[in-house]
Design goal:
The complex is a heterodimer. By secondary structure, chain A is of the alpha+beta class. Chain A is 22% helix and 31% strand. Chain A has three helices and ten strands; from the N terminus they run H-E-E-E-E-E-E-H-E-E-E-E-H. In chain A, the strands form three sheets. In chain A, strands 5-2-9-10 form a four-stranded mixed sheet, with no helix packed on it. In chain A, strands 4-3-6-7 form a four-stranded antiparallel sheet, with no helix packed on it. In chain A, strands 1-8 form a two-stranded antiparallel sheet. In chain A, strand 9 and strand 10 form a beta hairpin. The longest helix of chain A is centred in the last third of the chain and has 19 residues. Chain A is elongated, with a radius of gyration of 23 Å. The two termini of chain A are 22 Å apart. By secondary structure, chain B is an all-alpha fold. Helix content of chain B is 86%, strand content 0%. The relative contact order of chain B is 0.15. The chains are: A alpha+beta, B mainly alpha. The interface between A and B is large, with 49 and 58 residues.
Chain lengths: 180, 111
Amino acid sequence: MKGLLIAAVASLAVGIPDMLPPGERRVREEIALDWSDQLGKVRFVAVSSVRPGRRHEVARGQAFERPRLDLLRIYAVPVDAKGLPSETVDWMATGWPSTDLPGTAVASVADASPVHRVRTEAVVEAVDATTIRCRVVRSVQFDRDGNEVIAGGALVPATAALLGAVLLFVFARRRSPEPA
Amino acid sequence: MIAALLAYLPWLAFDVLVEAAVTARCVPREHVRFCVRFAAAAAMATHGLATTLRLLLPHDAILAELGWAAIDYVLWRTLAGLPKGLSLRLTLWTNLAASTVAMVAWALMAQ
């Protein structure tokens, strides 16, 4: 029972997003947002939820980083708006349509993974009175040199798994008499 | 491919050694030989499977950890034919030892 409790605590520890389990490493995450001119006269600004005053003007189709320890919210700001708020609460008070960053954050990848950067490409479908509707088009993974990663990086561990499975069956067939 | 091999094999070897060593301490003396070989093969199979899943499904670290332990238990119970108590004990101690030692090694390397 004691072992079970310790195992449960250890398992929980690796489940905490900011803790990397052994054999894992972080990847850089980017978002690229695209939209059509038909959306009207708006521009998009990514605003930090935890660092007051920190914001990023979103350029159409150009990737920007998804921060690890921050939550960005995208606001559709009228192009003629003057003087952007500096505090998060003030942004919320503007009533401008907003949304969370599209896509799911990738917490980490296995050390053996060739992936060093993940880019989520999304498109703004509509800007309603209160919200921005986005659709994730695709998620692209890049290696250290900036080349797109093609599936196949899992070949090494998959081979180890297969070899282990074969050995398991061989050993099980030669099993010694039932242990007491 | 070579880089992936070099990055992955030390973790695999590490896990296989730790699990085999812990198993040797947990089972009756007359079954040590079989159980240690079985533990090494099981560690290889489950570590390989868990890492493959992590590469294919990069969000599910916790699921891979728990699934890994569950598969270990099933292997000890069914394929090795060990009693429930011993299977559970082996599953808990081998996984706990492997995770703990790996975490310490990883923390030291990250310094």
